[in-house]
Amino acid sequence: MSFFSSRSLPGLRTALPAGIGLMLALSSTARADDSFTPAQRKEIVTIVRDALKTDPSILSDAITALRAGAEAQEQTRTRDALVAHRAALTTPAPTDAILGAPNARTTVIEFYDPRCPYCRKVLADLDRLVHDDPNVRIVEKVIPVLGPASVLTAQAIAASALQGGHDAYFRMQRAIMTDTTKPDTARIRLLAKQAGLDADRLVADMAGPAVAATLRANSELAEAIHLEGTPTFVFDARYVIPGAVDYDGLKAAVDKTRHN
After folding, report:
1. Which residues does UniProt assign to the signal peptide (predicted)?
2. How far apart are CA 11 and CA 67, in angstroms?
3. How far apart are CA 41 and CA 48, in angstroms?
C-alpha cells in the first residue's frame, strides 16, 4: 500500500505550500531524504504537479514563505551579532570621528565608503540630524569597499584624524567626498592643504600602522555584523538600516531606538 493513501491526500494538499518549500530547500542543498522510497518520491512529485496545475498560486505562496523564513533567520543572525559586538560598535576608535555631541544618549554608527555616491548624498541629512537633535551622535566608520580609489581616500580620511581629531577628520572627509576629481596621491595632497592639514604628514600617516589598524578593524566589524553594502546605519547597536536613507528615515529610526 502506498504511504500516501487516498484519505491522506486532502491533508497533504492543504500542506502543499510547506511541502513545496521543503522540496525547494532540499533541492537548493542538493540533498535527498532517504526516508522516502523512489515510489513515494514519485507520488509526491505527481501530487505537487497536479496541485500546481489546479492552483499555481501555491508555488508563489511557498516561495513567499521561504523568503519570510530566510528574512527572519537573517534578522536573528544580525541581532545576535549586534549584541556580541556592541562594545566595538559604540566605542569609537582613535581614527574614527563623532559628528554631534560626544556624550549624546543615542548613537548612530555609519559604515561608509568615501567613493560611494549614496554615502555622499546622505552627508547633508546627517548634518541636519545632529543639528536638530542634540541627543544624537554619529560615529563614522570608514571602510573601503569599492576598489583602490576607495582605499586611498579612506586612508586619507583616517590619517587626518591623527593631526587634529574630529575637526580635521571632517574637514578632510568633506573635501574628499565633495570632490569630483578622480583621487590620486597628488590630489589628496592638494585637498589636505585646502583643508588646512599638513599634506606631507598626512601622506606618511596614510601608510602607517594606526590607519591600517583602523581600516582593518572597521572592515572586520562590518563583516562580523553581516554588513552587505554602504552606507549602513546601526542604531545603538540594536537596529540596522542598510543602504541610503533620508532625513525622515534617520529621524524615525532614532525615535524607534529610544522608545523600544
Report:
1. 1-32
2. 24
3. 11
Give the pLDDT of residue 242: 86
- Verify that 156 and 249 share a domain, yes or no: yes
Length of the chain equals 260
The rounded distance, in Å, linking the Cα atoms of 82 and 75 is 11
> Which three-class secondary structure state does DSSP give residue 71?
helix
Q: Which residue has the cell 581614527?
A: 95
Torsion, Cα 148 153 156 160, to 10 degrees, reads -160
Span 46-80, pLDDT tens digits = 877 877 778 777 777 777 776 766 666 666 666 77
Same domain for 251 and 163?
A: yes
Could you list the residue range(s) of the whole structural domain that residue 251 is in?
87-259
Last residue of a domain, one of 51, 84, 117: 84
pLDDT digit string, tens, across residues 146-178? 999 999 999 999 999 998 888 899 999 999 999
Beta strands 136-142 and 106-112 are: parallel
Max Cα distance, the chain (Å): 86
pTM of the model: 0.71
Angle at 43 between CA 37 and CA 48, to 5 degrees: 130
